Task: inverse folding
């Protein structure tokens, strides 16, 4: 079963011991949120502010020892949108300029740049956090940020069973392929969709069995939490650096 | 990458940071947070302490189902979006919660979709498909016979139309939060045009999945909870091909109706596109097969019509989602005691 590489979460976390890896997860998440919001509200003409953002982000990626291959590979997820944004100069309205005999909308060019810059910075910043934080830590971070416990627990269960679902469907698909099922048209989907339906039934029944097992061990609706290493002021300060630098760049460009 | 995959991303599903204005992004984040808070509480009422494990495995299922490549035509493939399917199988509250969690995880953990775009990505991929899908499902069920075929048919139609409604929701967000000088009518026409086609695929796959579940465990399909054992027994199968042809016909009728409504004077528009050199460029674009060229209205030649389209879309969306929520509220009842 081929699947988009970006979904292959088994390789999301890049093991390391860099200072970025060691920052407490909730600090990293909040720092990320601050950074992407600053980037998102930066007016598109403030190219210098985006340069500051890019510089600080590059610094983070270097300190975290993330290779260009990892970062660029995952950034591929934004490509369809960036491709769509590249249409703006052609279908945009307003004043036009001529490049190689093709008339392009100036406003549209700025709009393309806007999406390209913000999508790249936002995507790379997310990658910097997800690649340096294992999923269990990410969940701890979420719950420390007061995300409802049920949501965190559901996400945890989702991860625990995701590989299982994907592998199970892969086995069904292989069994069908071994029996010469090679659909090419929309109306040949019944066996494939029936497998998906069967997978849902198995999923639901598995969920009920899991619940039974949990109930047998005293589960009453809330997951137990474990206290882990506490977060120091250093964590918060370090994690705030990109957002603060970005905000400073934003303010300076805004004032001049 | 196949057309459908590219096109399904166009809708603003998994949109990256900066695709829409920050104000619209913030407004949609508030809407998403309110609906999800409600869905979280409602799902606890419905599932009790089974909520966490069940919603968790079902989120994994939706995630996995979105990764399956379904053949569309001559080897090209598309994938399921699953919002309406989740609502039909799990009910609108649990369904919207599960799909929203998938969207959140895709953004947070897979960097698939921007964090600041999370609000509108959640609204377009989880809230609108689940609640509008549920409302449509209930509506179609009333028109169709009360048996397994009726549930499957209503599920398919609801799933198909819900995808189109999602694309309309994105177009409306574009109206208020456009970051590019591309007119609402252009975005609306292109979005709806592309998503009518995607909706056909979504309808066929959703119908087939619901049929498969109905065949083995009809008790698991929340949308069919009202059927008696006798009604469940009297099932009648619809041939795959007939079903697909029927869906395509419905889509064509819809597309024609909507494009008549949306595009104004197509000949004149095509001429404008050619004059501005866009028609040539469009052919080189991998997606939509020149659809933009056919729909592009360029500017506001017919401002009144644009506003009429935007207004009626807004009313339609609000009514459908609202109806879905109201009927979801009605079916909200205390958790049944777990099966022995």
Result:
């Amino acid at each position: 079963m081929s699947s988009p590489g970006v979904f292959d979460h088994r390789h999301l976390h890049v093991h390391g011991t860099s200072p970025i890896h060691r920052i407490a997860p909730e600090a990293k998440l909040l720092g990320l949120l601050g950074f992407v919001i600053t980037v998102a509200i930066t007016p598109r003409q403030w190219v210098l502010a985006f340069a500051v953002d890019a510089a600080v982000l590059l610094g983070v990626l270097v300190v975290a020892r993330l290779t260009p291959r990892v970062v660029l590979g995952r950034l591929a997820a934004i490509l369809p949108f960036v491709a769509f944004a590249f249409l703006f100069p052609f279908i945009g309205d307003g004043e036009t300029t001529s490049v190689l005999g093709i008339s392009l909308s100036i406003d549209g060019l700025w709009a393309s740049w806007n999406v390209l810059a913000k999508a790249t910075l936002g995507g790379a910043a997310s990658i910097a956090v997800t690649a340096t934080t294992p999923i269990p830590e990410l969940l701890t971070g979420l719950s420390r940020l007061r995300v409802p416990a049920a949501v965190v627990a559901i996400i945890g269960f989702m991860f625990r069973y995701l590989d299982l679902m994907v592998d199970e469907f892969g086995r069904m698909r292989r069994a069908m392929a071994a029996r010469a099922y090679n659909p090419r048209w929309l109306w040949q989907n019944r066996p494939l969709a029936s497998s998906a339906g069967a997978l849902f039934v198995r999923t639901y029944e598995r969920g009920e069995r899991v619940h039974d097992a949990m109930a047998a061990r005293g589960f009453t609706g809330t997951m137990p939490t474990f206290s882990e290493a506490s977060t120091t002021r250093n964590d918060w300060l370090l994690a705030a650096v990109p957002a603060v630098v970005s905000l400073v760049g934003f303010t300076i460009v805004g004032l001049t | 990458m196949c057309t459908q995959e590219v096109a399904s991303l166009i809708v603003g599903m998994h949109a990256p940071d900066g695709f829409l204005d920050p104000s619209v992004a913030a407004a949609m984040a508030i809407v998403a947070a309110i609906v999800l808070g409600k869905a979280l509480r409602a799902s606890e009422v419905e599932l009790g302490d089974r909520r966490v494990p069940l919603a968790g495995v079902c989120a994994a299922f939706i995630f996995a189902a979105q990764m399956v490549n379904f053949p569309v035509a001559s080897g090209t493939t598309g994938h399921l979006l699953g919002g309406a399917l989740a609502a039909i199988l799990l009910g609108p509250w649990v369904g919207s919660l599960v799909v929203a969690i998938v969207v959140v995880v895709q953004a947070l953990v897979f960097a698939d979709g921007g964090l600041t775009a999370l609000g509108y990505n959640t609204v377009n991929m989880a809230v609108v498909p689940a609640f509008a899908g549920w409302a449509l499902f209930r509506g179609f069920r009333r028109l169709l016979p009360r048996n397994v075929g009726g549930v499957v048919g209503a599920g398919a139609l609801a799933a198909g139309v819900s995808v189109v409604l999602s694309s309309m929701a994105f177009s409306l967000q574009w109206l208020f939060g456009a970051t590019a000088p591309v007119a609402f009518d252009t975005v609306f026409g292109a979005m709806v045009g592309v998503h009518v086609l995607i909706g056909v695929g979504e309808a066929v796959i959703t119908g087939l999945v619901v049929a498969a579940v109905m065949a083995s465990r009809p008790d698991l399909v929340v949308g069919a909870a009202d059927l008696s054992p006798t009604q469940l027994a009297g099932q009648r199968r619809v041939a795959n091909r007939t079903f697909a042809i029927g869906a395509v016909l419905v889509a064509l009728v819809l597309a024609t109706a909507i494009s008549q409504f949306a595009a104004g004077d197509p000949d004149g528009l095509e001429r404008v596109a050619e004059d501005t050199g866009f028609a040539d460029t469009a052919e080189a674009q991998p997606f939509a097969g020149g659809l933009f060229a056919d729909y592009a209205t360029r500017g506001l030649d017919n401002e009144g019509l644009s506003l009429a389209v935007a207004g009626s879309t807004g009313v339609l969306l609000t009514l459908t989602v609202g109806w879905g929520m109201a009927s979801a509220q009605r079916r909200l009842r205390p958790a049944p005691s777990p099966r022995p």
